[in-house]
Each structure stands twice: as structure tokens, then as C-alpha cells.
Amino acid sequence: MAGVPFVHATGEPFDVGYSHGAARADALRAFIADDLCRINRLAPEPVSVDSLRPVLAAYRAAIAAATPALSEEIDGLACGAGIPAELALLLQVRREIIGFQRVPARGDCTTYASLSAGPDGGPVLAQTVDLNGDLDDQIAVLNIGLSGSVLSGSVLSGSALSGSAQSTSTQSTSTSSGRTSSGSTSSRPTSSGSTRRALILSFGGLLGYLGVNSDGLAIGLNLVLGGEWRPGLPPYLAIRHLLDNAGCVADALRILPGLPLASSRSLTLCDRASLACVEILDSEMRIVAEAQSAQSDQSAQSDQPAQSDQSVHTNHFLHPDFTDHDAVNVFARNSSLLRLKAGAGGLAGLAESGTGHGVEEHFALLAQPTICVAGNGDVRRERTVAAVVLLPGRGELHLRPGDPSRSSTQTFRLSGVAAELA
After folding, report:
1. Which one of 104, 141, 151, 180 has the fewest beta carbons within 10 angstroms of its own beta carbon?
2. For 352-363, how does the pLDDT look when each residue is reduced to its tens digit (9 = 90+)?
């Protein structure tokens, strides 16, 4: 597959959205024109912009109340792409508009994190991305830096290296506008007014999906089905909000419970020294896995049992408070259980074979047939449309677009992160 589009955007929220929209304008307008973002190929009943206006207004109000900066960015996306604001909003909430149907819904994403299985024994978060709607053609990578989103350290710049080893680099420096970022973070502004940057995997104009930021926080996700899906903050935007405002897993876990999430998800979070996996159902959060590296766990006692430094999640609830509310159908659950076993076994195999593994070894695991889900020609069925390996300690996003068993690796970096940590 050819190089994935790479969008670099820095500044105030509206300006960031405008740059994104302008860079992807033709693709986004074509996507919207395709059965209304392909929603009408997937939803149980056809919808129109007119019929969706009341629910879109409810989503707009919820997003603006919870994350005003992202609301402004959506307006900028609309202006840059030359589309109505309500369509830019629809791009953010299309998964919630489609909803879930108990019988056909499957999920199929497999996500894992380890504090020691990455290169040089460092942290890694990896996952397959499984979506319906044949969204391979909607992939883009965003390099985002919002003014006022501060971090410790020096100014970082974004660069992308394609699978053909060609590189494109864009240098950028932003000064803080004085806007206060929401949430509780451990970061402090520097005299240079540096902005926290984030590399985001995006589909069809999404401001967020999964990614890694320049503080060393990486976030992945899984679809889990249950509860009431209602107007609120879409989890994809919640992930973006966390990457903008959290410098580590602990920060993210403080921010996340205050967000009015619109639908159920599982999030996997990993930084340089800790990880957590959380499940969200009806805006309630449960932690299903949590770990710290041995070096960072100052409270560890020699007589305590060793704690696993890894987490694996697929598409069924694991926390006992939520398992009785799982709406996944039996066929999807069987698939989820098989992939959970394959992911855990594969990750354990990497750990047993030595400390630290390269990106390609993780892609080899993600490309295995049990974990990598092939399509059957039905646009309504989820299939693997990408695989991602995130290295939070290096500020890197490695991507195989499409079927990862057939595509080559493309690498995107927040330059300066590795040197800063060295």
C-alpha cells in the first residue's frame, strides 16, 4: 500500500482542525458522499442529515461541554474541508450513530501492552485495528500540537518515514497562548512554551482514534458491547483528549472518570514505566489490569509475588462487574476468546525468548491468522484494516495499513523523544 497521508498541524484548536480538513478535503468529501460516510451500508435503517439533526445537536452540546477545544477543532475541520459543521461532527460520531446490533457485531481488535517486550526491553503497545465499512482507504496519521498543551522538555518536531524508507520532516515551534488545558496533569510549562505533541491514527476525519504523545503516553482500544449508547463524548475523542492533556497513565486514569462517554469501550494505556487496561460501561470505569516496571515500583517488597508487566484485551468484558452486561454474540465471543488466548500466548512467547523485541517481531504476531481477521466481502463485517505498534519511550507510531500480513511497515516519529530519554 502507498504511503499513508500524514498531516502536521500546530496551533489553536480551530487552526489545527482547519489544517487537518484542508489536507484531507477531497477524501473527506468523497467519504461523506459515499452513502453518508458509509453509515447507510451499516446501520439497521437508513438515515439522513435531516433525520440526524436532533441527535447531532445533542452530541455537539456534550462534546462542547466536556472538551471545548475539540469542539473548536471540529469547527476548524469543517471550514478547512469545506463541509457543513454538522457533517464534520458526524465524522466524529458515526460509530455511535451506527450503534451495535447484537447478532452481526463482532469487534475483532486485539490489543496488548508490555513494559519490557519492546526494543531494548522497553515498553510497547500493539494492536490490530478491525473495523467494518472497508475503511482502509480512510487511514491518515496526524501529528498534532495544540497551543497551550504544555510538556516538560524541549520543543519536539514531527517526521514521517514511509515504508519505502523515504522521509518527510516538518519542523515547527509553537508558543503557548495561555489557554489552560483541562484535566489534571503532571507536566509543567517550560520557558520555551513547548507544546505536547501527539501522533494519532485517524480514519475518515476522526480527530482521535489511538496514538502516542511526546510525554510517552500511548493509548489503544477495543470495542466492547454493552449498556446504553447515548449522546456524550465519543471514546475516540476521549482518547485524543487524554493524549492532549495527560502525560502518563496515572494522569489519564485521573481524567478519564470525569468524561461523559457516549459508548462502551476498553482502553489500554502504557507509558515508559506503567500500564493499565480499563473497561467502560455506561460511563462507569473498571481497571482490569495494572502494572509498573520493577525499576519504578518503589513499594515492591521482596516477599511479594512478581506482578505481570503485560496486558491483553480483545472484545469481551473481563471485569466481573461488567461480564453479566456483555452484549457480544456467541460467535463474536468465541472469536474474542481465541484471539485473547493467541495474543497472551504470543506475547508470553516473546517474553520467554529474550528481553526486548523489534517492531517487526510484534507485527509478525499481529499478522498471525487468529489475530489478523480476514474479510469475507461483507462490508458490514469487521476485518483487520491496519496494525499498529506504539513505542511510548521513543515517541514512535509504526503502522502496517490494510492486511498487516501483506503490507510493509511505515514509521512516524516525534523526533527528539528518544534523544531526550537517552
Report:
1. 180
2. 776 678 999 999
Label residues 403-422 b or e (16+ Cβ within 10 Å = b).
bbbebebbbbbbbbbeeeee
Pair 32, 83: CB distance under 8 Å: yes
Q: What CA–CA distance (Å, rounded) separates 403 from 130?
A: 10
Q: Do the Cβ atoms of 117 and 106 come closer than 8 Å?
A: no
Residues 255 and 275: their CA atoms lie apart, in Å, by 15
Beta-strand relationship, 157-161 and 167-170: antiparallel
User: 366, 320, 314, 364: which is closest to 335 by C-alpha?
Assistant: 314
By CB atoms closer than 10 A (0-12, 13-18, 19+), residue 2 is exposed
Residue type (1 letter), 214? S
pTM of the model: 0.86
Q: What φ, ψ does residue 225 adopt, rounded to 5°? A: -115, 125
What whole-number distance in Å separates Cα of residue 163 and Cα of residue 166? 7
What tens digit of pLDDT does each residue of 245-291 get?
Answer: 999 999 999 999 999 999 999 999 999 999 999 999 998 999 999 99
The low-confidence residues of the chain, meaning pLDDT below 70, are: 1-2, 101-107, 148-194, 295-307, 354-355, 416-422
Beta bridge partners of 310: 114
Neighbours of 292 (CB within 10 A): 20
